[in-house]
Amino acid sequence: MNRYALTVRRWWAVPPTLAVIVAVCWAVGTSEVPIPSLVGGMDGARLAYFTPILAVVAVMYCMERRLREAERTAVVPIRRLDHGAIILTAALAHAAGVLVGMDVARNITLLLALALLVRRVANEAAAAASGMALLIGTLITGRAYQPGGSATHTWWALPLYPAGSTTAWLITVAVFALALLASP
Fold it and tell me: Whole-angstrom Cα distance, residue 86 to residue 1?
């Protein structure tokens, strides 16, 4: 099964992707790109906010690669192998989060969970695209302004929560666990 994980599924592609995420986050720093908001005005979003998509695309690439006949007759359930690789990806993302920010690690975990749930009803391409749709959707509709005029996020926009938000972490872990249970 180790050969299957490395040659067919190509799980070796995930750690270099996380290294690219760290390099991109360091390179762009706090650079922002303007994003329109439905509540008015043009607000900015850090470029590092979009880097979790790279990890989701890498995982969905690995999940898409399969040999159906070999998986049906395998002694070791491939599902267990995939879940282990996905959990390891989340753990490695948190190790990388120490270098680039734990909000990036949380968003990788959240987008992986969303991708697994979408993959359940669609395919890997739709699963990867759903993460980008969530990020852009929360940027456009998930912002609000406090009475003092400072920008904040709405209660449902989890990717916009600060890295230290316990609520966002608990919801992310719950969605991730649900996604692992629901994945085929």
Answer: 16
pLDDT at site 1 = 56
Strand bridging mode 42-46 / 143-145: unpaired
The residues, any chain, with a CB within 8 Å of residue 121's CB and separated by 6 or more, are: none
Q: Which domain holds residue 129?
A: 2-182
Are 59 and 141 in contact, with CB atoms under 8 Å apart? no
State how many domains the chain has.
1
Taking each continuous run of H as one helix and of E as one strand, the counts in the chain are 8, 4
Q: Report the alpha-carbon distance of residue 93 to residue 183 in Å, rounded.
A: 20
- Which amino acid makes up residue 86? I
Residue 62's SS3 state is: helix
Residue range 71-91: average pLDDT?
Answer: 83
Q: How far is CA 135 from CA 115, 117, 126, 131, 150, in A?
A: 13, 16, 14, 6, 21
List CB contacts of 178: < 8 A, sequence separation 6 or more: 113, 117
Using N-to-C axis directions, what is the helix angle for 102-121 and 14-28, rounded to 10°? Answer: 130
Weakest-pLDDT range from 16-25, 48-57, 136-145: 136-145
Q: Within 10 A of 136 (CB to CB), how many other CB atoms are there?
A: 13
Which whole number is the average pLDDT over 140-166? 79
**Cα distance between the two ends of the chain:** 18
